[in-house]
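P.,

For your records, the input lines for the assembly:
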Amino acid sequence: MPVLPSLIDPASDAFAANAGDMRALLTDIDGLLAQAAAGGGEAATERLRSRGKLPVRERVALLLDRDSPFLELAPLAGYQTEFAVGGGAVLGIGVVSGVECVIFANDPTVMGGAMTAISIRKLLRALEIARQNRLPYVQFVESAGGDLRGLTGKDADEALRENLTHFADSGRMFHDITELSAMGIPTVSVVFGSSTAGGAYQPGLSDYTILVREQAKVFLGGPPLVKAATGEDAGDEELGGAEMHATVSGLADYLAEDELDALRMCRDVVAHLNWRKLGPGPSLPADPPVHDPEELLGLLPADLRTPVDVREVIGRVVDGSRFEEFKPRYGPTLVCGWASVHGFPVGVLGNNGILFNDSAQKAAQFIQLCNQVDTPLLFLQNITGYMVGRDYERAGMVKHGSQMINALSNSTVPHVTVILGASYGAGNYGMGGRAFDTRFVFLWPTAKIAIMGPKQMAGVMSIVRRGQAARRGQALDEAAEAAITAAVEDFAERQSLGLYATGRVADDGVIDPRDTRTVVAMALSACHSGEVRGARGFGVFRL
Amino acid sequence: MRRVLVANRGEIARRVMRTCAALGIESVAVYAEGDSDAPFVADADRAVALGGRTAAETYLDIGKILDAAAVSGADAVHPGYGFLSENAGFARAVQDAGLVWVGPPADAIAAMGDKLAAKDLMAKAGVPTLPSARIGAGDEPDADVGFPVLVKASAGGGGKGMRVVHRPADLAEAVAAARREAVAAFGDGTVFLERYVTGSRHVEIQILGDTHGNVVHCFERECSIQRRHQKIIEEAPSPAVDDDLRARMGADAVSAARAIGYCNAGTVEFLLDADGSYYFLEVNTRLQVEHPVTEAITGLDLVREQLRIADGERLSFGQDDLAIDGHAIEVRVYAEDPAAGFLPATGRLVAWAPPVEPAVRVESGVAPGSVIGVQFDPLLAKVIAHAPTRAEAAGRLALALERTRIAGVTTNRDYLAGVLRHPDFLSGAATTAFVEQADVPGQRRPTPDELGDAAVAAALAGQQARRAAARTLATLPSGWRGTVMPPEHAVFVSGDEEITVAYRTTRDGTFDVAVAADRLRAKVIRCEAGSIDLEIGSRRLSYGVDTDGRTWWLHGPGGTIRLDEQERFPETRTEAVTGGLVAPMPGSVVSVHVAPGDAVEDGALLVVLEAMKMEHRVTAPHAGVVGDVHVSVGSQVAGGDLLVVLGEPS
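Structure tokens returned:
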């Protein structure tokens, strides 16, 4: 298989400027990651420790096989929302007793582990990953319950709306946990602390429950609620203590003496699952790329206006920089070809410009070819959209775009997407966007995701306003219009930033470009926990 | 002589077989059940299982050994040292069976076997002796020899059945204990008293005599470095013996040998006092453990001489043909814990490898995987350095010991190296009191930096091993994290110290390491099974690495560091029984002196344990009332087993 050449000049000023910009973005992200890791802060963490408890990240680290990699997902959930960065929980894929598992762990230092709209979203994403990829699911439960603060807010309508959304959302987690079990995907709950009301069903609906003595409290209603509801005086240990559940109610399968004991038990439970992945696993040499992944920092300009050859990215991600390109001279704005990442074969689709009629058709054909041989797809997005204009529409742009989206939608091999730069409009969809059951979507710090480019959006809206004014026969205040246009562009720009999306759990996280190979490999390995099988039915259409 | 049965085990059996092979003679091994996989059995051309586990059932069973000789078609028997080597009955039985006995005449063995009679004989021949007394049936000595006094087994050797007594009140118990040990070790409980001279030296003369009346001495060996009356370091020549003294002692040894009609190899032991006067102690009618130092300085192969003499040949040299070449020192590497009173240690030898350099002679009876049990002497190996000067020999031997790879069993290796580097030893002033007086660490005491380096090496060797064994995400970067997570860590315990090594993989494959207060950059250069080469900062370090369960042995500069890695998820511990007295080592219970409810004084004898043919007294650490007694006579106990619970005084 040919080795991709590299034509970039890492000594150039442009490269240095790009790398400088990228490092600045990464420094910001490192700050946010540190903020997420700090959870509820030092004082809350010390309070936790003083009670003999471990902070959530130590719990997770201890659960993992020593020296195994851990892929944290949605680490910046809640960024630029009213909720804490991180969403009060740690979510990731890690190796436990040799088995890749989805791990979701409440952070008790963040509002006592209370479930907010963001943490619910993160939890539902955790369950979705487990379901789509057939990964055993482990959750560390220590939660004060639902976040009731909305009810004391000033805007009663808003609070009610939030809580309705929140309440409706949270019900789904019960459904999804039991669904996992029914699908043959084991679920394990380790209860480190309170698990009250709805939260009680988290362990209740799990296949395995491990409760920590004198820490776990699992009940539908705690002492205050019981007193309020029935007048009964009951202590929390007798209502829902670990020992009671282990000896009387039978809710606890394993009674742990302490947190370490619980983690050991959890590892033992996973070890006995007799877990066999259904995918074929890595099958090709996993040698590192010949081109230095460090150089991924300097490839993309922050303003996304200069074109970048996506092959320079591919050559720094795939094994040995080997890439067998499909139809290189046809539809050249979409680079398609075969490669492998840490031994996992992939079909790569990367943007080298706008999607034209021929590039869309090439994509549709390539996706079918990959399905025919059960090869997962890796999308590298840097796309401003499908081409518009008279000639293209007349040549069947909608038809060709539909072919690509049809192929994508009905492709059954796993899809993993990395958004490198622009991700605008239908380009986001066609290139393995989140809405197309893509297994994992990661962003580079340079990613921008929007219905269209901010400038284009501001321009479109300005044209619309001018049309309205003209219809009404009003004169347009040009100064005011310019100010509005600038404000719209600025707002759209901010909303298009990768961090905005990631704060809303619209993706699986912003990654350091140098980690792309590692992250993609872990995502592919997770996909291989389930069956890796392409769509069948028709022969591959030559488009 | 075409086929020699070696009625022994371990290093000496291999030693004898090696010379047999050099002379074109086949060798036959006999072995106990626990030795079926031992190197000496593999070395032999033929081997016969004796059946049984204890010495009495095997290497001390004359009938079984003679049967083995018949089965294997052996025409000669070499007894090695210990076991039946000084048993006149065995020597006779061998000869009666028509086999060649590689040793002195049975009569000479018998004459010297009774040490008291031997002393009388020597006194008559004009050799100086120490005052001594017999002990009759009534436990009363027949003469007053004063105190301190040494209780010795008449049939003894190797320090077994030997006790120093400083006060008359302690004599009766010492005699009883020495008798029990002597019975267990030699089948003969006769003991006697001998005046104990402190601060003296142990100097012995090697003699060789043929059956044609020729007797020579092969100069002296000094064996003053002893613990529990057992030699651990021997050398030749003695730093305390000049040519004149050597000539006089040699002449006395030769006349002693002639007086008893001695032939074959033997050793005349003397006590050398500070003033240069010397006293006959005993004759060892066998090859000595420490014979290699004599071989080194004389160029002789003493086993070859033994075999030739037994075959009736004449000595091929006379006294004047012998000369001393340089200096040789031997150390005995034992499985024992010098820090705990040299108590025997047991276990599986995880690693055993002498160094490639410096050049030393190694006589070992073990191999990696050997199990050191309680049945036999825990000698692992003898290491001998021969150099032009004593200082060079000591230095070379110390380095060789530090470079020897030993893991799995506690040994006296560090202690021996410490003695070899001790100024009192190097000055030649050490006496038999050295071990008691000198402050030599029982185990190496690494500096905090050495400990930190070793811990980093162990942590990263563990990391490398885990990644190599990983089956999931095996090719991905070790411990990769894209977000902020706690570092990987390993916690080790060394003695009282706990060392935590926290590390993170960095993008270039090196490690960010935190150990103690230091932040370091470490890079693994090479890591294979059994070794790791790494850079810590700019320092390049290479370690041999052995593991057994969670225990690590790092073999590097200065010797070995043992680290016990803490369990990540410690088992929920059961509370230790307070006031419990535990067995200091594995062994069997000889006697129990208390019953539940007894009030005992501080120091009262509670239980006597026997291990390695030595008795160990477990006494009350404080006055109190005995609670539960967990053992009875004959109980087999492991080290750390609870024996007796002692409560506070009522």
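Two observations worth noting. The CA atoms of residues 41 and 115 of chain A lie 18 Å apart. Chain A touches chain B through 44 residues (CB under 8 Å).

Regards
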